[in-house]
Amino acid sequence: MPDFATTDLHLAIAHHLLIFALAAVLAFEIGVIRAGMTARDVTRVARVDLWYGILAGLIVAVGFARAIYAAKGWAYYSVNHFFWAKLGTFALVGLLSIVPTIAIIRWRRALARDPAQVPSESAIANVRRFLWAEAVLFALIPAFAAAMARGYGMPT
User: Fold this and answer.
1) Are 126 and 58 within 8 A, CB to CB?
2) Which domain holds residue 98?
3) Pair 100, 127: CB distance under 8 Å
4) Domain presence at residue 47
5) Which of 58, 89, 90, 123 reaches 20 to 30 Å from 19, CA-CA?
6) Residue 35 and residue 118 in contact, taking contact as beta carbons nearer than 8 Å
7) How far apart are alpha carbons 16 and 90 in whole angstroms?
8) What is the pLDDT of residues 88-147, one digit of tens each?
9) Rounded Cα–Cα distance for residues 23 and 123 (Å)
10) Burial class (CB in 10 A: 0-12, 13-18, 19+), 122
11) Residue 71 forms part of a structural domain
12) Is residue 156 one of the residues assigned to a domain?
């Protein structure tokens, strides 16, 4: 059985790698969902979007395992304002991601019915607004995490 420090290290590594993977999926979607999308683009983004939800779920699971079982423990995180800001921001990013995911599912279904069907420019523009909003909020999460890790956000 690994010691406490090793467990803490493994959870931290897993958490960070999952977050980077989620950022990569978001960047991929921003890059692919653009004016002039092709049927191939819709198929590619539909496959990748599935990973967005899987990674988000894993991030939450590993993140809470870190908060409960790792170095600082739940007593530290549960009262830290930056921890809750980080979680709230992550939840908001997740809520914003619903619109692109639903659009991608619709695009994929339309494509299955008609192989020539591609998303309209207005639909693409709408989804891109949501993706960029996710990206902007996502960028706040490491700032909150850095502040939290250094003791900021603790009640006085």
Assistant:
1) no
2) 4-149
3) yes
4) yes
5) 123
6) no
7) 14
8) 999 999 999 999 999 999 999 999 999 999 999 999 999 999 999 999 999 999 999 999
9) 23
10) exposed
11) yes
12) no
